[in-house]
Design brief:
The structure holds two protein chains of two kinds. By secondary structure, chain A is mainly alpha-helical. Chain A is built from 17 helices and three strands. Chain B is elongated, with a radius of gyration of 23 Å. Classes of the chains: A mainly alpha, B mainly alpha.
Amino acid sequence: MTYLRLALAFISAAIIAGVIFARLGRAKGEGRQHWRAVGLAFAALAVLTAVFDSAMIAMGLFHYDASHILGVKVGLAPIEDFSYPLAGVVALPGLWMWLTRERDREHRQSRKYLLSQALLASRPVSWINTAYPFAAAMLLTTREVTWVLVLGTFYFLIPYNLAMYGINDVFDYESDLKNPRKGGIEGALLPPRLHRPMLWLAAATNVPFLVVLALAGGPAAWMSLAVSAFAVVAYSVAGLRFKERPVLDSLTSSTHFVSPAVVGLALAGAVVTPGLLALLVGFFLWGMAAHAFGAVQDIEPDRQAGIGSIATVIGARRTVRLAVVLWLIAGLAMLATPWPGPLGAIIAVPYIVNCAPWWNVTDTTAGGTNAAWRRFIWLNYGSGFLVTLIFILQWSQAS
Amino acid sequence: MGSLYLVSLLLGIMCMLLLDHRFRLFFWHSPKAAAVVTTAGVLFLLAWDASGIGLGIFLRGEGTVATGLLLAPELPIEEPVFLLFLVLCSMVIYTGTRKLLDRAPTRSADSSGSRSRVKDNAEARENA
């Protein structure tokens, strides 16, 4: 990758963030003044860059690999060096305007409220569930800590979850109002006035990362990032709402957790082997089973609210049995992976044991599966621990 | 000699902060927001540096004006200081420009409006 391509990646990220923050932050009629000031500031910075960058290069502070730059220079400064001040001056003043927007107290509070709501909505307890698959997949392939690994892990840790749950909370507003279990007093509903800002915030925090990660990889990374981002949006956005389409709901939910791993593999340039495919299939089936089983406890409230899910359509009993079978196949898939992967088959056992007592559950007793669902959350931590041990074993075996 | 670059950068940062202080532009306007913007800016540009270094595009020079202390391969101690300077400089120029633009009358309607108000005041005083 040349300097120009690198610069374009970061500039596009900066422009997207700058435009979105300026949109969020500008008061009426402030936009024109803002962009005029940005333009003038860049003109000044460009002159300073031409002079001082040339001086710094002349003094031998740094240089560039000639094969990576275009060769167009202002003084001694390669034209690409002007991308630094450009990116800074496009993105940061927008953020500044948003943060300092002088308005009445209600607005200031609503920004604070938006940030705290966004953070809460993103479920910090589950951040690790998306960051871990990415980091593990990439680290085990490249076996070194690179900037892409750090950037991607951060992305799948926070912004990704912020988008996933933020968008979800906005578009669930309608159905949550109708849902007797979620609505009413208990409802952690996002007030409608925060809906647009929440969607903008999701875009501002996600698109720049997606652009940079896409430019760091090839077509495989573009595809997997596109699928990952689409699954995040399609799960809850009005019009698509995959979460209310039986079977598609479980598929999309599982994609949320498996796609970060696939992105990590794509960015690391992993070679696709049958063993790797078996691992991914096992992980994907595990995710589907988890979603399907989770939907069983909500059959009653979902039906009352007229919301569809895999469980409301095929019924409690068949959903539970499907989940058990999926976990079983997931475990078997692990046996097809190279050593120490087959050890992972053990992980399926506690899930099946936890779920099996509800083999003959009926739609009326479906609420009782909540007990198993609570245990399930703890089982996940245990499985994460086992998976980590297997990874460490794999790591030490390969080195 | 080895610390010339670092010292110049620190002096530059001080100059920016003096301008900031004098005209209440950035940290002296809204410290919390300025801290967030500065941190975000420096981290963003550092990530850019790291990726350039990782791809083998950016190479550190053996310049005699630099300390030669490294934070990471090809990443001298001066780099984050330079990025801090760049962010401060950008924000001081932007906020300063905004101040000038916002102060200057933007539309002729505004200025004529204020002029007529001045006239009205003068008339009012005369009447009194």
